[in-house]
Structures are given as structure tokens and as C-alpha cells.
Amino acid sequence: MPPEMRVLAKGYTDTPVIPGQSWRVHDIDRPMPPVITPGSSSTQSQTGTPPSDAIVLFDGSNTHAWANRQGGPCEWQLVAGDAMEVTPRTGDIHSKESFGTCQLHIEWRAPTEIYADSQGRGNSGVFLLGLYEIQVLDGYDNPTYADGVTAAIYGQYPPLVNSCVPPGEWHTFDVVFETPEFDGEMLVEPAHLTVFHNGVLVHLRQAIQGPTKHRELASYSEPHGPKGPLVLQDHGDKVQFRNIWIRELNALQAE
Ligand code: MG
Known about the structure:
- By secondary structure, the protein is mostly beta strands.
- Helix content is 0%, strand content 32%.
- The chain has two domains: 30 residues, no CATH class; 219 residues, Exo-inulinase, domain 1 (Jelly Rolls), CATH 2.60.120.560.
- Strands 1, 3, 4, 6, 9, 12, 13 and 15 form an eight-stranded antiparallel beta sheet that branches.
- Bound molecules: magnesium ion (MG).
- Magnesium ion (MG) binds next to strand 7 and strand 8.
């Protein structure tokens, strides 16, 4: 026979109010967080699943959530392994939907065929709001400039460590992006990025200096809106992507 269930208090009404909040410690009336079903992690041979409240941007079945630079159909090809592959010289692709502050999960792998070094090896990129690049590069035993290596905030901050796996193996990026805030022309709060590369923290709430530039200083000289598309870069290399999902975070901020 199962033991009798003990029914315990579900909170309190006589505890102190938490400073800066309207709730008591262990407040019985405080709303519970929404219930979701967590996803599963990928392995090299099997693609994981997103959490139930994520917006799925790519699960291997089609590229309908994406468009080419001109707004036409995505020209990158579906390939084995629930993946899509850059079709070189067809251009960057962008999500049809726009996002602001968010959690992003994306996986990618570099080609095993190596025909260049430095920035010519498995180069692509993940651009939040279409403006802020986290570098995709085959950075495994591949010297290049530090602020352009894999998982760099391109042109600004190298990752804390190089956590690359060999070409042909899947990488994961888990990203928290906080959109910048402007008051008219004035920057009030810069964008921030937190990035895990293959499960390893490589940027901790790093303040970004402005939209990504090549061989130039970044700045917030042109204010922009709070949302933008996710952009994946065609840098001429056949990089593959899989299991792309995003969770918008503004709606979830705790009171
Ligand atoms: Mg790039």
C-alpha cells in the first residue's frame, strides 16, 4: 500500500514583504511560473528537441521560416542530419519573424574539406537583430585574429576560451541576447550577450559596443528598433545548421 500523502502549506500570509517587490516571502498568492515541457539535448548523431514554449525556426523539415536577402525563398539546401547547408553566394538568410531580447539555441558544423585557413575555414555567423554577430568559424587548430575566432563577438571580444570541436562535428551556441535601449538618438543601455559554446560559458553579459563591423570600430551611431530578424551569414563556406529555436524573454520577466 502506498504511504498516506501528507498535505503541506502552499505558502504563507504572515511573512515579511520582499524589498522592491509586492510579494511576501513564500507568498501563498504569488502566481506560479508557467509550466512547460523541457527539450532534450542533441548528440552528434541525434538532433535534440526544443522546449515546448520555444519558437522553432528550423527543425530539419523545411526552411519556411527563412527568406533570402531580397525577401524571396531561402536558397540554402536541406541536407542529411536534420540540417540545412549554406549555398555559397546565394547570400545571407534571415528569419521572417523579428525578435528582441531572447534566448537562442542554434547548432552548426563546419565542412571537413579544408581549402583555406584563418577566416576562410568554415566561416559563417549568427547575427542577432541582423546586426550583432557571434562568429561561426572552424576554429579548431586554426590560427586567426582573436576577435574573429569561433564564438567571438566579431571585431570586439574574443570568447573566454576556445571550445571548438573538430570540423564535421556539431557545435552548439546557447545565447542570451539583451536588446539595446535608445531614447531618441541617445543610447540608454547597450546590447548585452551571454554565450555558451558547446556548453561552456564564453561571454558573460558582455556589453556590446555597437553593430558588428569589419576592420572598423563599432558604435551606436544609428539608433534602431527593439526587434530584428535572426540572420545567418553566407561567407562562401558550406556550413550546416540544425535545431534552431528561440524564446522571447521580455514577456517572461519576473515582477
Ligand atoms: Mg562570420
